[in-house]
Amino acid sequence: MSLGKLLNSSSEWNNKEEVLKTIYWIKQIYAILCGLVFGITPILGFIGFASFGVSVALISYSVAYTIMRVSQNVIDSSSTVITEGMFPALTLFILTWTCTYSYLHA
């Protein structure tokens, strides 16, 4: 599995689909965690959206180029890494954030 390969520091990432699939799932897991944290600590409005957007972009870029050490030959551009799975992650974040906040604070 790609997420297991992420924990092995000697792994090579030469397959574009595998890299993007791993980034996709990292974003989904991160979206759930952020939704829970933002819902428990009552963060509201634009601050929540902006914080999630910036942090998920930074994390996906960092994971791809620092932890996975993906070369530019494998991925066309850094925007591909940042935008891969962004909208499903945003949707999952909003759902988790809203449900957690409503359950705890409404």
Determine the fraction of residues in helical runs and give it as a percent range. Answer: over 70%
**What is the general shape?**
elongated
- Domain count, please report it: 1
Task: State the order of secondary-structure elements, H for helix, E for strand.
Answer: HHHHH
| Beta-strand share of residues | under 5%
Rg over CA atoms:
15 Å
Total strand count, please? 0
Main sheet summary: none
Poorly predicted regions: none
Distance between the amino and carboxyl termini? 40 Å
Q: List the quaternary state of the chains.
A: single chain
Integer average pLDDT: 90
Which structural class should the secondary elements be placed in?
Answer: mainly alpha
Tally the helices.
Answer: 5
Essential attributes:
106 residues; membrane; endoplasmic reticulum; mainly alpha; EMC6-like; Rab5-interacting protein; RCAF1; single chain
